[in-house]
Amino acid sequence: MSLQETAEAPVDSFGQFFREGGEGTVALPHCQDCDRHHWYPMERCPHCFSQRLAWGSVSGRATVYSVTTVRYAFTAANRGRTPYGIALVTFDDVPDVRMVCRTGACEEGSDVAVGDAVMVSVTADATDQDTGMVTCAPLPRNAGSGAHGER
Amino acid sequence: MSSTSDICITGIGATPPARRSTHSIRRLVVDAALAAIEDAGLRPEDIDGMVSDSVIMSASVPRDWLSAQLGITRTFDASLSYGGAGSVGAPLLARTGLRQGLCRNVLVYFGVDWGSRPSGPYGFHDMYPAKRAYEKPIGFDAQPEYFGLLAARYAEEYGLADEELGAFAVAQREYAVRAGIGQKTTPLTMEQYLATPMISDPLRFEDCCLISDGAVAYVLTVEERAADGPHRPVYVRGVGFGSEATSGDDIFSQRADYLSFPGTAQAVAAVECDASLPLSEADFAEVYDCFTISCLLQLEDLGLCDRGTAGKFALAGETRLDGRLPVNTHGGLLAHSYLLGAEHVIEAVRQLRGDAGPNQVENARVGLVTGLSVPDYALLMLSN
């Protein structure tokens, strides 16, 4: 299920998530004992409570679980950037892990809907690699899906 | 010396609800505390126990500071959770102090200055690392978005007409306008509700609670002494607290049972056992309503409505004064003020004293109060 494993590393911050992720690739904390992923980073696996955790990359292919269009800027950073979409997605490889992503939106609403297939991309901030942006974009219904096949 | 005496709320105090107060939060808490103590027929030096929430008051109006202002010597001191679950669950701790004879009169208090504080409520969740490092930079940075996602998922699973959420906002505005003691004093029709701007779909402006400055306090003592006070005692019939193995980081995205709040099952079991009464015996409910959808979800979590039906329950008028279960009879966080649910306790006491004026629930005997402080939850059953 997990495509790549990095060396065992502390899973206690977001730096590795942003540095190892990319376009269509998402690094998640992965338990070496029960082989399950989780999110957010934790000291112990929430499934088996092992502390043998590493980062493991999964495909960014995901399905929209819920989505909202944000039309009001609650913080200065988003002033002039509304409306934008916030989607909660589940990964096709790890359906019990959900991730909050930013997505596009216009006055009519966000550009993804519940149930849509999307691709998640992770971009580290240029100056502070411990933070960054996570987006999801709609996938064409019949897009090639690599090793995972059609779902 | 320990006892199994019932404990009662004998005094309540509240500052006038305000979007922005000219007073500091510390002054507001002093005012509310003095009002509650006087309402109980006591003097400040009669108070010897204090309970507050563990996070907000402990940081902004600590119990030692308040004791110094009021001349209170404490032999009992405790704190619980944060915000609403702390204020609603406080009798759980107060009862321990009172029954064990550690103290005679317990003051519970809570205040908030999110109306005048520049970051308002949005800065509060910065205490969670995932919020700071991950969610905020993405733009998942405010409570209406967290609850907007919940409402959108609910709509997907059960269907949710706009008017079903609106029914909560409209009904609570009716209460607030009739009571005339809250921040909202003008009526809200369904048409007006539907015309207010979307904030975070499907939540509109009027689905979101107010922002306020203010404070409330209440006084508890054992049944034997409660009869000495000037008001009809209000009995703590049952109190329950619950929380689950989920953190503030995870709660708005990772919970497997996404559409229910953690801790509710534990709190329901605890309060029903403590009160020897099912929640369905409540004649009215003051339900933590930071958003219309949070009130809707709790009515289902608590088993007061079947899954997928709470919106229809509200739309049928069942949460109004003449409905099957009057809900948030002062207007709640949506229309009275947003003191994180502490004022819900005060309103339940008013109802059970028969002091709720135009919003008095006829023959009110048992009232339910909920405190939602995800991932913590508290329930309080009061009776007269």
Structural class of chain A: mainly beta
Q: How many structural domains are formed by the residues of chain A?
A: 2
Can you count the helices of chain A?
1
Ends distance of chain A:
15 Å
Basic shape of chain B: globular
Span of the ends, CA to CA of chain B: 26 Å
Helix content of chain A: under 10%
Strand tally of chain B? 11
Report the sheet with the most strands of chain A, covering strand number, pairing sense and barrel closure.
5 strands, antiparallel
Mean pLDDT figure of chain A? 87
Strands across the major sheet of chain A, in which order? 6-5-4-9-10
- Number-wise, the strands of chain A total 10
Shape of chain A: globular
Largest sheet of chain B, in brief, is: 9 strands, mixed
Low-confidence stretches of chain A: 144-151
Largest interface: A-B, 41 and 36 residues
User: Radius of gyration of chain B in whole Å, from Cα?
Assistant: 19 Å
Enumerate the spans of chain B where pLDDT stays under 50 for 5 or more consecutive residues. none
Characterise this structure:
The complex is a heterodimer of chains A (151) and B (384). By secondary structure, chain A is mostly beta strands. Chain A folds into two domains: 4-58, no CATH class; 61-138. Chain A contains one helix and ten strands. Chain A has one helix spanning 15-20, and strands at residues 4-5, 25-31, 53-59, 61-70, 84-91, 98-103, 105-106, 109-110, 117-124, 132-138. In chain A, the strands form three sheets. In chain A, strands 6-5-4-9-10 form a five-stranded antiparallel beta sheet. The longest helix of chain A is centred in the first third of the chain and has 6 residues, at 15-20. The radius of gyration of chain A is 16 Å and the shape is globular. Chain B is α/β, with parallel strands linked by helices. In chain B, 37% of the residues lie in helices and 18% in strands. In chain B, helix 7 (162-179) crosses helix 11 (292-301). Chain B starts with 6 loop residues before the first strand and ends with a strand. The model of chain B has no long low-confidence stretch (mean pLDDT 96). The chains are: A mainly beta (151), B alpha/beta (384). The A-B interface holds A 13-14, 17, 38-41, 46, 65-72, 74-75, 77-78, 81, 84, 86, 88, 96-102, 109-110, 114-115, 125, 130-134 and B 122, 129-130, 133-142, 144-145, 148-153, 156, 197-203, 245, 249-250, 253-254, 256, 258.
